[in-house]
Amino acid sequence: MHFDGEKPIYLQVAEQIEDAILTEAFPEKSQIPSTTEISVTYKINPATALKGINLLVESGAVYKKRGLGMFVAQGAKKKIMEKRKQDFYDRYIVSLLEEAGKLGISRQELAAMLGGEEENHE
User: Do 29 and 74 form a contact (C-beta atoms < 8 A)?
Assistant: First the structure.
C-alpha cells in the first residue's frame, strides 16, 4: 500500500483491500490481514486500519469469524465491482455527459471519441 495525501488513510486501506479482492489476491472465503498486521506493516494507527476494515464489513465485502479474524464474503468481488461501477458512473460519466451537452457533442460523437476514432469535422 502506498498512501497519498488526498484521501483519508482509512478509505485507502478499504480500497486497497477491495483491490486485492478484485484481483483475487484475497479470494472469497479467504482471510484478510488483521488490523494489527495492517497497522504494523504500514505504520498506521490500528484504529485507522479498523475504520477501513469496518467500511468493508458494512458493505458486506468482509465478515468476522469470532476468534479467527476477518474473511472475504461470498459474492464480495461482485458487490465491489457493482459499487465501483456506480461510483465511476457518478464521478466521471455524469460530468462527462454534462460537459458534452454544454459543448453540443452528440452521443454518437462522444461514443466515437471514447472509441478512439477520429471525427471528420468539415
Answer: yes
pLDDT for residue 6: 84
Phi and psi for 31 in degrees, rounded to 5?
-85, 140
- Measured CA to CA, the distance from residue 41 to residue 55 in angstroms comes to 20
Are 88 and 80 spatial neighbours (Cβ–Cβ below 8 Å)? Answer: no
Q: Tell me the β-bridge partners of 65.
A: 69
Pairing status of strand 69-72 against strand 62-65: antiparallel
- Please compute, for residue 31, the number of CA atoms within 13 A of its CA located in the half-sphere on the CB side: 9
Give yes or no for a contact between 57 and 18, defined as CB atoms under 8 angstroms apart.
Answer: no
Measured distance CA(12)–CA(5) in Å, rounded: 10
With beta carbons less than 8 A apart as the criterion, state whether 42 and 1 touch.
yes
C-alpha–C-alpha distance, residues 14 and 59, integer Å: 11
pLDDT digits (tens, 9 = 90+) for 35-57: 999 999 989 999 999 999 999 99
Q: CB of 59 within 8 A of CB of 4?
A: no
Residue 103 corresponds to which cell in the numbers above? 459543448
